[in-house]
Every structure is written in C-alpha cells, then in structure tokens.
Amino acid sequence: MPFVLSDVSDAELRDVVDMLFKAYDQSSAFVNAVYPHKLTEKGVECLDMVTARLQYLRDVDPSTKWYKITDTETGEVVSASQSNIYNKENPPEMMLNGPLGA
Fold it and tell me: Is residue 93 part of a domain?
C-alpha cells in the first residue's frame, strides 16, 4: 500500500485535528485540557474553537506546517502532524508562563 505525504488544506484541518484528538483519547494531558468534552455536543463546539485557533496560528506564523499521510489505495488519511520549520534562522526564544513545577 503506497503512502503519500502532503500538506493539510484549510478545509481538512478540522478533520485532521479530530483524528489526532481521537488517537490520543485519554492519554494526553494536552488533549484533555483543550478538548475535554470529547464527542458530546459541547465537544463538537470545542473542536471548532480549537481548529479555529490552530488555523489562526497557521495563518500568522509561516513556519507552522501541517502534514498528512494518505493511503493512496483507500484515500484514507492514516497519520498527520504539525511542525514548525524555520528556513533561515532560529526564532526568538519564547517566554512561557505556567504554574510552578509545570
């Protein structure tokens, strides 16, 4: 079964985020924090909000790239990822705040 690597389009981002969140399910503290309601009605609203935020980050930061791997025999997306790719120089160091010990 041949696979193809390609960019995730704006129209595909929601489905890709949904797939990734389902894959992590209960095992990711990040997913549980940003998508706590899963597939309930409220969860669908949260997925829309998370997707909008990720789309915004992609729009304002040209280094943000989303990729998918598609099984060419079935047309099914079997994997996806997000990366930041810097072509010229390292980005400025980010200051992150959070609770002590995090």
Answer: no
φ/ψ (deg, to 5) at 39 = -95, 25
- Which H/E stretch holds residue 25? none
Residue 73 maps to a domain = yes
Q: How far is CA 92 from CA 44, 63, 64, 86, 95, in A?
A: 35, 13, 15, 11, 9
pTM of structure: 0.72
Range of the domain at 57: 3-84
Structurally, the chain folds into a number of domains equal to: 1
Q: For residue range 40-63, list pLDDT tens digits in order.
A: 666 667 788 888 888 998 998 889
The residue with greater pLDDT, 68 or 62, is 68
